[in-house]
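Issue: ligand-bound run for adenosine-5'-triphosphate - logging full I/O for the record.

Environment: standard queue, default settings, no custom constraints.

Inputs:
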Amino acid sequence: MAAGLRRYLLIVVPYAWLLVFFLAPFFIVLKISLSDLAVAMPPYTPTFDPSAGWEGFKAFISQLDFESYIFLATDSLYVNAFFSSLQIAVLSTFLALLVAFPMAYGMARAPDWLRPLLVMGVILPFWTSFLIRVYAWVGILRSEGLLNQFLIWTGIISEPLQIMNTPVAVYIGIVYSYLPFMVLPIYATLEKMDESLLEAAIDLGCSRVKAFWLVTLPLAMPGIIAGCFLVFIPAMGEFVIPELLGGSRTLMMGKTLWNEFFSNRDWPVASAVAIVLLLTLVVPIVIFQRQAERQQEAGR
Amino acid sequence: MPIVEFDAVRKNFGDFAAVDGVSLKIYPREFFALLGPSGCGKTTLLRMLAGFETPTSGRILLDGQDISTVPPNRRPVNMMFQSYALFPHLNVRDNIAFGLKRSNRSKSEVEDRTAEMLNLVQMNDFASRKPHQLSGGQRQRVALARSLAKNPKLLLLDEPLGALDAKLREQTQFELVNIQEKLGTTFIIVTHDQEEAMTVATRIGLMNRGSLMQVATPSEIYENPNSRFVADFIGDVNMIEGTAGKVTKRDGEAYAEVKTMSAATLKARCGVPVSSGEKCWLAIRPEKIAVSRTRPRSAANLVSGCVDDIAYVGNLSTYHVKLADGSLIKAQTANRERIARREITWEDEVWLSWSPDAAIMLSD
Ligand SMILES: Nc1ncnc2c1ncn2[C@@H]1O[C@H](COP(=O)(O)OP(=O)(O)OP(=O)(O)O)[C@@H](O)[C@H]1O
Ligand SMILES: [Mg+2]
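Outputs:
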């Protein structure tokens, strides 16, 4: 009996956690997204009043509509913001992969004593606030910043490059910020790969390049997929980086959400943006989970 | 003509010589075993042949051609790895077909050859399993099939049976021999298990500290070891220290008298040329020593002592006999009688005797 109870508790705790911290906020946001804007406190209607009873509840439901969503779909700003976010997230994930794979590969091939130091080096930036690190890039990228000074000093350019407040700055910011999330899972898969597998491939007639394609890459795939999701998901909803580095011309979902919420005080539209963002991310998350499960089944 | 020839091959790691001037010829269709204690350079020698290490000096010839400039993927040599190194993301069939697909074979040829190899190692029923779904013995067979698929001139096996339990190991040894005989491929196997080497190999090369100590057939290396190290490494042996005395020749063999530390005089075949007065060692296999309670009427070599211990392993009994000078000699007899009827027991005074041919005299 006691064991049964304990098991029950073990199951209940995570579900309760999920209910309180995920499902409840989700339904509140969903409800606000279906409400209408109002000049009131809180700035939307209807508000749910339990004292009105069943009739009150029916009236409450009947006042909910998809107006905010229709607005999102018809206003090109939001459509553009969505596709711009998608583009930035996809491209920066790809760029992060291009940078991270050689890094992870080099780390996995480093001598034993050096590896912990290299891993430490990848993790070290987390010890400083994310905000400060992104802000530091302003100092590097702006017209009189370190990068431009350096390039002018070497004579490569004569006029400072306009990097700040362009999408390029956003890509740099995202790739920089999320690089560890790409490096670490790839490193983990490469590091446990048996060197003799490559030798076996070469012994059976592969060139080194071919062995890389046929053995290293397929075996690193789980790490690559995990890394891509870990970068893509936060990049999609990114707010701080486009805000600090992207300037007014860079449109992203996170930024429009912030504007609606704080500048326009349009909570229903802001909530609708949040819901759309969430649903966009649920798809890759589910795929990711599936992948992880399948891998666990494969036992490797 | 030898298929493989090592010509004064050295391999240094830093200033440590892992392989220290090995010269060796291996002939077609041989099943050659490289035997030796851990760290003696067996794997290094094999890896140089496969092309994963380059010799520091010396030459390696394959079919008379120097292969030092041929990259490993171009050598007509395949290797079966100690860890098997099966590709975890490919199933059994694709693992076996891996090398075939890298050669200029047509699709149907690849399929036929893969099926043939699956058949050879009896893995047809497991063709679509992944390596992690196989037992150790099954993995070993897949690895063997994969390394044989391209029909190499030479197959290198690095401790192929190391991961198997004793029973499966023995069975697999015979399978290996059968497959080798059927295909006629030259096999070079690395092992540190002397019994395994004796069972499978047609010739054995015994290594120690990067050098070859002796290269000979299993019976030759057992009967005529050329040094204390070899005698000690292969099978069980009694070593008696002494000084060489008079050397006589009979039927082309040299025999020497040896004065032992306890002043007994023993006669033995000369394994190495010795001159009288030199310090030497007598090596005698325990199963060549007769044990008796009564003094044998005529024996070339005779010592007495008392039974200190008896190790009984089913079909064999080993008597540990303590001599007057305190040294122990092991003598082994086959148990033909039931153990209760055995006439010799602990603390008995016994006589040990052997013929001059049973013992071999080795230099220090
Ligand atoms: N890459 C290397 N760098 C430095 N030393 C090495 C290297 N490879 C092998 N050695 C050394 O060379 C010696 C011979 O190694 P090798 O692997 O050939 O031994 P082995 O006879 O195969 O032993 P085992 O039976 O344990 O497999 C060992 O002392 C080993 O430490
Ligand atoms: Mg080895």
